Structure formats: structure tokens, C-alpha cells
């Protein structure tokens, strides 16, 4: 049975930091807080900023093993989709985050681990 307290079930909370290939840098954390604030204050944002918010939010939440933040990331993604703000040109947004040293490679990353969650969702 799906554990409502674990938004990435069946992945264990202790494995959250292994889910994604990048993590925020100190500089990235500052930028993440800026765009998150901009989003919550309902300021106008570009598609690139929305892309970066999606990426950085999940990197931040999972690297910190923060269930509440992962749930918020999921809600934000759902809300943006409902508003017709879909992921587009994500590769370019991610490349820009890398080039600006806002994210860096995650040494704990385990390729394919996130697919466990996706496969579970598809079976539901």
C-alpha cells in the first residue's frame, strides 16, 4: 500500500539523496530561494524560471530528505501543468544552471532509482 507520508514511495526516505544527478550549490540555494519566493508571491516568471524552479525544487527537497518539500514540489508541478505551463526546453534550463554553477553533480546519485517511483505510479 502507498504510504501517504512518503511522496516518492516505494523509495525509502534514506535514499532520497540518491535520486537525482545534481544537487544545489551554495550559490544555487540562494537563486532557488529567489525564484521560489517569486513563484509564491505570484510574480511574473519566464518559462526558463519555471523550468529551473521545477528542477531545483526537487534537487533541494530530495537532497535534504524533506518529505514536505517533495510534496510541495509535486503540487507546484501539478499546478503549473494545470495552468498550461509545461516543461519545455528543460535541457537548456538545466545546462544554464550547470554553466552558472548553481547545480553540481551529485556524488550519491544512483541511475535508475527514480524509475522505481515512476514504475510504481504507472502501475497504480
Structural commentary:
The protein has 124 residues and is mainly α. It is 56% helix and 5% strand. It has five helices and two strands. It has a two-stranded antiparallel ribbon. Helix 2 (47-63) runs antiparallel to helix 3 (67-82). The model has no long low-confidence stretch (mean pLDDT 94).
Count all strands and give the number: 2
Provide the gyration radius in Å. Answer: 14 Å
SSE order, as H and E? EHHHHEH
How much of the polypeptide forms β-strand, as a percent range?
A: under 5%
Largest sheet: 2 strands, antiparallel
User: Helical proportion?
Assistant: 55-70%
Helix segment count? 5
Task: Tell me the overall shape.
Answer: globular
Kindly, what is the distance between the CA atoms of the first and last residues, rounded to a whole number of angstroms?
Answer: 10 Å
Question: How are the strands of the biggest sheet laid out side by side?
Answer: 1-2
- What is the averaged pLDDT score? 94
Helix vs. strand class: mainly alpha
Give the uncertain stretches in residue-range form.
none
